[in-house]
Structure formats: structure tokens, C-alpha cells
Design goal:
single chain; eight-stranded mixed sheet; seven-stranded mixed sheet; ANL_N_sf; ligase; Acetoacetate--CoA ligase
Length: 652
């Protein structure tokens, strides 16, 4: 392994990628002589309007692009410019454009913990979308209305979303593991007209009711006029009067599917921030911005093409669900899974990968770490010959997990550590099928995104840690926040540090190869003695110890300074004695620096995380300092915070 190099695509593979074809198209159209990713990236930032216009043509977007690519605001060209201002298109029409060509081939394959697959063809998908669109129309849903899903990751969830988008309405969703209060925090703001839910769902071998929770939501959100129930297992449930059964809606005759084209910047999705620092932000994403950006990220960065099998382990409460669904626009088959990734055992997703010949496997970094801890080696037990791309997101992927992927999953693989978020429903940093993978680095900055690293003085730097910023406009910027009439909340969320520069909140380093190393969220950065330390630097080494199952680190205000406090969840049968504490400290001192060494190490039985699996570092920090956590409902395990209150170790 020279200079951390783990993988390089061979020449034949590079030549046949969609990214290589796109470069050839740019050279032919614009008379350029671009050669490779770095050339294309520089051109795409310099000529971003030409890039997005070329992508529209290359990806075969259905719709009228209009005469202008971008209306540039002279005062705030990055924040307030408008892309394709006169374009008209429909998101669902573009996701279903391959249906006629591949009518009897699988559009979606679903499996759960029972591991019995259910397939829906493209023809069946179109017919069912038509039926649900017709139902929504009969309920008075119009362009601009909101339709919501309180649902598992089912094919029917995708169908309900496509039906909503087909008539120009707005889709919003959350997963059934959210409690009633969490759902009210979200749907209480966006006020959907119709709510889709399920009767129950399965997780880790247990069955959980969802219908009763959905009925409570309906009772408390007056805007909801109809509740539709999707039977999870196909059996007809007993439903209260006035509640519609999904199966009945499909049985009604419906006219052929029609698509209502809307403006490029018309709302398509409302996504929600984690809400750990207040009520969740309702982030509005546009029809055209989502479509174009996902086409870029799928086809150019991930080489997704017709006939591929596309899988991402996600729930409907995470933006990766929206990201995954858009792969239909590239002609890929969606492989959906709902349930625990470790039930009945750690091989459940890899059996799925083998059985359905996945070409892209997407997951969270924590999942790969857990597999490594359990000693799971998928390459020894499963045929992964079709797998070309493995994506990881949700938290920082440590260098050791890069090693694990190439040693224990597959050696000839594009490992894409991707990072962005709900804010843009996409990525600032992601993969390149033309480029090498280096240990511990995300491959490249996203095409047409002027991503830089700023030091505290607001200067762009390389090979130095700093803030991830974006210095240009891009189509998938949020339309705004729901009910943010003057735009102040939107401005304060991203634009208020340096005028017209997007600050994303990640603490990173731009490498000599043009890749990116992540050190954690910048608002969780530790600052002992005035030295900034990324939390991921500590997790990387502590979580590799066999005695440690998980950890969370914070900075505690202490004697006019900040001291590092580490909480650890131990493996079964392990005691946090003095020898183990010294092992932890020695590991951190040796692998990081003396400033990284925690002043206090304390044991907990659980580490708080959000429902999308992200560490709730700020919630722990607030509890330690005796402050209220604004939105406990955003956490997957809020009761775990009780262990962090009034710890005697933190008073001495």
C-alpha cells in the first residue's frame, strides 16, 4: 500500500464509466480537452452553468429547460441566484421514464427480516402510481399541497411518493420508529393533507404497532383529512371507519398515469433536520434541484446505469431514502430492505447482496465498524461479483474501516465515503469511478461545487484543518425553510459567518490528492487550551480497542478552560479499571497527541444517537453542563442521557 493507496480502477473500467462518457461529451460540445476527474472538476466549477446544462442533456432529463440556465443575483450570487428559472418538468416523470423500455423487468425488489423477496416490475409500478395519483386527486390534493408518509422502507412508500410528485404536490416522510411527539414536531409544521402509514412493522424479530400512533397524529394535526393504511405483510387489517385501505385504492379503475409539470424550483420534498438543538427545521427541496443533483451523484460519481441493482440501508426518516429512490431515474432497480441489519444475524444484508446481485451497496460508517468488531468477513461467505461501489455515510469512516472493506468485503471496489446531508439532500464530497481510493479519505469534491476549507481567518487552505464551505451557487440549495417567511432562519443556518459563503459545519482537511479527511462536526470540536481537536480523531483509535463497543467525547467547561471527557460503552464482561483507562490514554497519546488525552474517562451502558445513527455529542455536552436538551424526541435512545447527568467524576 503505497502512500495509503488502496484501490485504482483499471483502464478498461475507467473507459466504460458514465463519467468518462460525460467528459467526452463536454469536450465535443465545448471544444475543451479535459482529461480525468481533476480537469473536469476545475471546469465544472469555472463553468458551472455549462456543466448543469450539459448534465441535463447527458442524463436525458424530460422537460423544458427554458432559455436561461441561471438568474444570477448581483448582491448575493451564491445564496440567492435561481437555476433554470423558466424550466418545467416533473420528478416522477423522470423517475419512470425507463418504464416502457423495461416494462416486465424489476423496478423494485423488497425484502425484510423474513428474507422473502417481493418484486414489482416497471409496468406494475406505473399502474400502481397511476392508481394512487388518482386517489389523491379525488381527495382534492393539488400542486403545492403536502402529502406525508409515516412508513417503513416499503415499495408502497416509493409509490405514494411518486404519485404525490406526479401531480406536482410535496412529499414528506418519517419512519415508524419515531414516537408521536417526534412526528408532531415535523408534520405539525408542514400540515399534510393526506397521511400514509402502515398497520405494523418488524424490527429485530419483534412486531411493532404503527396504526395507533398514526391515529394519534391524525387527531392532533387538523390539516390531515385522510389516513391510508398499507398492510405491511399483505394481510387485510381491520381498520376503523373513515380510514382507507391501500389495497382498495389499487383495486379501483384509474386513468393512465399523467404528470403535472411544474417549475424547476417548485417544492418537491420537505426534509427535517435532526432537531437536537430545537424544533426540527423543515427544509424545502426543489423538483429540479433534487433531480439534477441526484443524476449527477448517481451517474457521474457512482456510475449507476440501467439494469444496476441499487441498495441503501436507510429509513424514510433519513435523506438517504430520498437519495436512493432517485436511482430509478438512471434505470436502476431499487433493492429495498426494512428491519435490523443484524437480524437474524450479521449476514442478512450480504445474503441480500448475493441473491439480488447488488451493484451498489450503501450503508452507515457505524455498520461497517460493527461488522469489523464482530469479525464478519462477507467475502468469505458470499459471492459479491456484481458489487462495484460501496457507499458509506452518516458519520466519519475511520481509516481502519477502509482497510476492513478492502480486506474483508471486496478488494476490487470503489469505496465512496460520501458526506453532505439533509441540508442539500446530497453530497459535497463523494466518489469518482475514475480516481484512486486513499486510506481515510473521501475521494473527491462534488462536481460543480466550489468546496473549500477555510481557516479561522476565512482563508482557503489545503493540508490544514478547517471549516468545509461552498463558495458558489448550485441547483440543490434548499428553496428555504417552511414558514420562514423572511428567510432569516435559512440565512442564519448556513450563510451568516461570511457573506455569501455556505458554511456546512464539518471540520475537515483538503488533501494533496484532492480528497477530503473528516474530523467531525465543527460545532462539536474540542478546544482544550485553545487547540481545536476533531472528535473523530479520538473515536478512530478508541473504538478500535476490543474492550470498547462505542464511545462519545465532549469538551467540559472546567476551571476557565475546556477539558476532554470520554464516555465509553464496554464490551460484555469488561470492567473500566485503571489498567484499561491507562490503555485508552496511552492509545490516544501515541496515535494522536497529548492534548487529545481525556482528563476523565467514564463508563456508560449506552451512547445517545439520533434516529439516523449520528452521535448526539451536543446533547451529551448540554446534559453534562446542566442544560436542557431541546429535542429529546430527535434521539433514538433519549433515556440514555440520564447516565450523563451529575456524574461525580465530572465534579473533581
Amino acid at each position: 500500500m503505497k502512500d495509503g493507496l488502496l484501490w485504482t480502477p483499471d483502464k478498461e473500467r475507467q473507459t466504460h464509466t458514465l463519467l468518462a462518457a460525460f467528459i467526452r461529451a463536454v469536450n465535443q460540445t465545448h471544444g475543451t480537452q479535459l482529461n480525468g476527474y481533476n480537469d473536469l472538476y476545475a471546469w465544472s466549477v469555472r463553468q458551472s452553468g455549462d456543466f448543469w446544462q450539459q448534465l441535463w442533456q447527458f442524463a436525458g432529463v424530460i422537460g423544458d429547460p427554458g432559455e436561461r440556465v441561471c438568474d444570477i443575483d448581483p448582491e448575493h450570487p451564491n445564496r440567492d441566484s435561481h437555476w433554470f428559472p423558466s424550466a418545467r418538468l416533473n420528478y416522477a416523470e423522470n423517475l419512470l421514464k425507463h418504464a416502457e423500455q423495461y416494462a416486465d423487468q424489476p423496478a423494485m425488489i423488497f425484502s425484510g427480516e423474513h428474507e422473502v423477496a417481493r418484486t414489482l416490475t416497471w409496468r406494475e409500478l406505473v399502474d400502481q402510481v397511476a392508481a394512487i395519483r388518482h386517489y389523491l386527486e379525488t381527495q382534492g390534493v393539488q400542486p403545492g399541497d403536502v402529502v406525508a408518509g409515516y412508513l417503513p422502507n416499503l415499495p408502497e412508500t416509493v409509490i405514494a411518493m411518486l404519485a404525490t410528485a406526479a401531480l406536482g404536490a410535496i412529499w414528506t416522510s418519517t419512519s415508524p420508529d419515531f414516537g408521536v411527539d417526534s412526528v408532531l414536531d415535523r408534520f405539525g409544521q408542514t400540515e399534510p393533507k393526506v397521511l400514509f402509514t402502515t398497520d405494523h412493522y418488524h424490527y429485530n424479530g419483534k412486531t411493532y404497532d404503527c396504526l395507533s400512533k398514526a391515529q394519534q397524529v391524525v387527531d392532533k394535526v387538523p390539516a390531515i383529512e385522510r389516513l391510508v393504511v398499507i398492510p405491511f405483510d399483505g394481510d387485510r387489517p381491520s381498520l376503523p371507519a373513515g380510514v382507507d385501505n391501500w389495497q382498495d385504492l389499487l383495486a379501483h379503475d384509474a386513468p393512465p398515469l399523467r404528470f403535472t409539470r411544474v417549475a424547476f424550483n417548485a417544492p418537491l420534498f420537505v426534509l427535517y433536520s435532526s432537531g437536537t438543538t430545537g424544533k426540527p427545521k423543515c427544509i424545502i427541496h426543489s423538483v429540479g434541484g433534487i433531480l439534477l443533483n441526484h443524476l449527477k451523484e448517481h451517474q457521474l460519481h457512482s456510475d449507476v446505469r440501467p439494469g444496476d441493482r441499487f441498495f441503501y440501508f436507510t429509513t424514510c426518516g433519513w435523506m438517504m431514502w430520498n437519495w436512493q429512490v432517485s436511482a430509478l431515474a438512471s434505470g436502476a432497480t431499487l433493492v429495498l430492505y426494512d428491519g435490523s441489519p443484524f437480524y437474524p444475524d450479521a449476514g442478512v444484508l450480504w445474503r441480500l447482496a448475493e441473491q439480488h446481485q447488488l451493484t451498489l451497496f450503501g450503508t452507515a460508517a457505524k455498520y461497517l465498524e460493527a461488522l469489523e468488531k464482530q469479525g464478519v468477513a462477507p467475502k468469505d461467505d458470499y459471492s459479491l461479483a456484481s458489487l462495484r461501489v460501496l457507499c458509506s455515510t452518516g458519520s466519519v469512516l475511520a481509516p481502519e474501516q477502509f482497510d476492513y472493506v478492502y480486506q474483508k468485503i471486496k478488494s476490487n471496489l470503489q469505496l465512496s465515503s460520501i458526506a453532505g446531508g439533509t441540508d442539500i439532500c446530497g453530497c459535497f464530497v463523494l466518489g469518482s469511478p475514475l480516481s484512486p481510493v486513499y486510506r481515510g479519505e473521501s475521494q473527491k469534491r462534488g462536481l460543480a461545487l466550489d468546496v473549500q476549507v477555510f481557516n479561522p481567518q476565512g482563508q482557503a487552505v489545503e493540508e490544514q484543518k478547517g471549516e468545509l464551505v461552498c463558495c458558489n451557487s448550485f441547483p440543490n440549495q434548499p428553496v428555504g425553510f417552511w414558514h420562514d417567511t423572511d428567510g432569516s432562519r435559512y440565512h442564519n443556518a448556513y450563510w451568516n459567518k461570511i457573506d455569501d459563503i455556505w458554511f456546512h459545519g464539518d471540520y475537515v482537511r483538503l488533501t494533496a490528492q484532492g480528497g477530503m479527511v473528516f474530523y467531525g462536526r465543527s460545532d462539536a470540536v474540542l478546544n482544550p487550551g485553545g487547540v481545536r481537536i476533531g472528535t473523530a480523531e479520538i473515536y478512530r483509535h478508541v473504538n478500535q480497542l476490543s474492550e470498547i463497543m462505542d464511545s462519545v467525547v465532549i469538551g467540559q467547561q472546567w476551571q476557565n478552560d475546556v477539558r476532554v471527557v470520554l464516555f465509553v460503552k464496554l464490551a460484555a464482561g469488561v470492567t473500566l479499571d485503571e489498567p484499561l483507562k491507562q490503555t485508552i490514554k496511552k492509545t490516544i497519546r501515541t496515535q494522536c497527541t497529548p492534548r487529545h488525552v481525556p482528563a476523565v474517562i467514564a463508563e456508560v451502558s449506552d451512547i445517545p444517537r439520533t434516529k439516523s445513527g449520528k452521535l448526539a455529542e451536543l446533547a451529551v455536552r448540554d446534559v453534562v453542563h446542566g442544560q436542557d436538551v431541546a429535542q429529546l424526541s430527535a434521539l433514538d435512545n433519549p433515556a440514555s442521557l440520564d447516565q450523563y447527568r451529575q456524574r461525580p467524576e465530572l465534579t473533581q
